[in-house]
Write a structure and sequence with these properties.
By secondary structure, the protein is an alpha+beta fold. It is about 20% helix and about 25% strand. It has a four-stranded antiparallel β-sheet with strand order 1-6-3-4, with no helix packed on it. A two-stranded antiparallel ribbon has the order 2-5.
Amino acid sequence: MEKVETEKVEPAPLQVALLYKILKAQRETLEFLKERTSEGVDFPIPEQTVTGVATINFLKEYPYRKVRSIDFFNKGPDTVYVRVNEEKEFSIEDKERVTSSKPKAEIEYVTLRVSAGEQ
């Protein structure tokens, strides 16, 4: 086989600079959109009866992906303590509804804790 010699042609410095500016603007736009755009779809999660501690891991269980928002409703007489990912725990009193939401799908798991019968 015969070797074919090729000539390397360097792009003009102005073209390189312009392409770099376009790339930088595209990256900034993409990051902005990722931060501002909501992700995911709504789907029902079956009711959970918790008498101690329960963890719902959305990556290992349905829907097998992170979620952006979750609604809690305490039907029982006891206070429910909720922790979303590693955030600070918050409480939900009897007949209270609370929504935890993020700008994008960041919720991997939720830990629910109930001290049944304690006042």
